[in-house]
Design goal:
about 550 residues, ATP-binding, 3 domains, 12 strands, 4-stranded antiparallel sheet, 20 helices, alpha/beta, 6-stranded mixed sheet, Rossmann fold
């Protein structure tokens, strides 16, 4: 027998082609495809009906007469094996569950009645697979209500699918080719089937799944078969089932597309210069900066997704929170120095709370630290939190300076600092929430928000994209309110000195390399007395 190569992929396919006969000559379904699978992987293949997905799996199993391919298992070429030896290791599970025999036990033992398995063991099917072993397998996949003596034709669709999967798993193949085995099942049964496959993969089996359902986040890689080509896609583009979307509409933007986008910005900058608005240079510079930052983040996220390491994902999120803190302080005009710690703490607390609720309670992915889910979600939540916090802090300190006489009067009448600052806190939180409320009001009628648009463009099902967008909008609304309120509750006392005397610190200097340290340093008492706002100074 040919020796296997321990360094090779578990399964490799190259030069995979299919030509179907037709009245006008052979019709090419796909040509010269390549594919690999490692032990423990679950790889999903999606695509439109008729794209050739089932044909591809039957080619891998050497079952299709119209296909040609070079196939290897652990480096051993399929040509060195009999068809039965190959299919003993690479098992094809069709969409339709076919269970033959007078009982469920007979249907499950069917593969063990064939010579390929009897020859290896020298035992009968009954000896290889006793009732106790079948019972244990069925119980482990949630089929404890199925009697082994039951006629398999009496099983429901979900029961038949799981029994068929159990039969295949009991043959212990190295590679499982699952052809839409969860199609037609209700969500609970489909999830059970997914859990069974995930358990098999965790034990070293390599699994290829044809799926039309939205991604269940169990796949390590995803591909789309379209126009005879097999290309790797993202989790969003993989969700093709449910509401009529059968193929990805994602189109790659080339370099010329980016150049034209920059030309549009330059045209806008030219108009700004002609109108003497004074924002032309800033518009061009920040557009270039945005492009560099986005492309860099794309490279980083792609690397983090490939690593799929929870600690690296958490590290990147921490860096994003730190960057959000710096940007918030830079945008919060009128805010005093030394506020970094408060803003960082507020963002960290509220982001941890909101990410936990959204991922663990609402979305409930199998892996909470899934990079392709948690990193974009963090970015969208932080982006809105930064704008709200900066606006809220600016408004709060402006209001506290404008209300100097009111605050002095309230303090003189016995108000506490909280009671004196409360009107400014309320107006600031309310102002910060207005953009979010406007988004909720117009979403789905006037606008298709960014997350929903992005998912639809990348091939996501529109109905599923709408649900994700709603969750994001509500999370943003909650996050902005809580983050703004928590931050203002932490900072309002900065406008009062000992003995509850009113003194608003001076605004922080414009952020430069020289003044960067001021982000972390409170204004001194001398600076506050000389440059701060108090009731006496306001009344002069």
């Amino acid at each position: 027998m040919t020796t296997q190569d321990p360094t090779a992929h578990l399964f490799e396919a190259s030069e995979v082609s299919c030509r179907m006969p037709s009245a006008n000559g052979p019709r090419v379904i796909f040509d010269h495809l390549s594919f690999y699978l490692d032990a423990g992987e679950i790889v999903d293949i999606t695509g439109a009906s008729g794209a050739g997905k089932s044909t591809l799996l039957t080619a891998f199993a050497r079952l299709n007469v119209h296909t040609d391919a070079t196939l290897r298992i652990k480096g051993v070429d399929s040509s060195s094996m009999t068809p039965q030896e190959w299919r003993e290791q690479v098992s094809y599970l069709p969409q339709t569950s076919t269970l033959m025999g007078q009982s469920v036990a007979d249907a499950i033992r069917l593969p063990f009645t064939f010579k390929i398995r009897e020859r290896h063991s020298g035992q009968t099917a009954q000896e290889i697979l006793p009732d106790a072993k079948i019972r244990a397998m069925l119980d482990s996949i949630g089929c404890n209500d199925i009697d082994l003596t039951r006629n398999p034709r009496d099983l429901s669709g979900g029961q038949a699918a799981r029994v068929s999967l159990a039969r295949t798993l009991l043959t212990s193949p190295k590679v499982l080719l699952a052809d839409e085995v969860d199609a037609g099942l209700d969500p609970d049964n489909a999830n059970l089937v997914g859990e069974i496959m995930a358990k098999a993969a965790s034990e070293g089996m390599g699994i290829v799944r044809i799926r039309h359902r939205a991604t269940d986040h169990r796949a390590t890689r995803m591909y789309e078969l379209a126009n005879g080509a097999l290309r790797e896609i993202t989790a969003a583009a993989a969700a093709q089932g449910g509401r009529g979307v059968s193929t990805s509409t994602y189109t790659v933007i080339d370099v010329w597309g980016l150049v034209f986008a920059m030309l549009m910005v330059c045209a806008a900058a030219g108009i700004s210069m002609a109108m003497k608005l004074g924002v032309g240079k800033s518009l061009v510079w920040n557009s270039i900066r945005s492009l560099v930052q986005l492309l860099a983040m794309g490279v980083v996220i792609e690397y983090v997704i490939k690593l799929n390491n929870a600690w690296i994902t958490i590290g990147l999120i921490c860096l994003m929170v730190l960057a959000a803190t710096e940007i918030t302080m830079n945008r919060a005009k009128g805010a005093p120095s030394g506020m970094v710690g408060i803003v960082l703490l507020s963002l960290a607390i509220t982001m941890l709370l909101m990410l936990t609720l959204v991922t663990e309670v609402i979305i409930r992915p199998k892996n909470w630290a899934l990079p392709e889910l948690i990193i974009p979600l963090t970015g969208m939540l932080l982006g809105n939190a930064v704008s709200t916090l900066a606006l809220g802090m600016s408004r709060f300190f402006d209001s506290m300076r404008e209300r100097a006489n009111d605050i002095q009067t309230m303090l003189a009448l016995g108000a506490s600092p909280w009671e004196a600052a409360r009107p400014s806190i309320r107006s600031s939180v309310r102002l910060g929430l207005l953009p979010t409320i406007a988004k909720l009001e117009t979403a789905g009628i006037v606008t298709i928000p960014g997350m929903m648009s992005g998912q639809i463009i990348s091939g996501e099902n529109p109905f599923e994209a709408a649900k994700y967008q709603f969750v994001l909008l509500t999370a943003i609304a909650a996050l902005t309110l809580v983050a703004d309120a928590v931050t203002l509750l932490f900072i309002y006392k900065r406008c009062f000195t000992s003995y509850d005397r009113y003194l608003v610190p001076p605004p922080a200097p414009q952020l430069t390399l020289k003044t960067f340290g001021s982000l972390f340093r409170k204004a001194s008492r001398k600076e506050m007395l000389e440059e701060g706002t108090d009731g006496a100074r306001k009344s002069e």
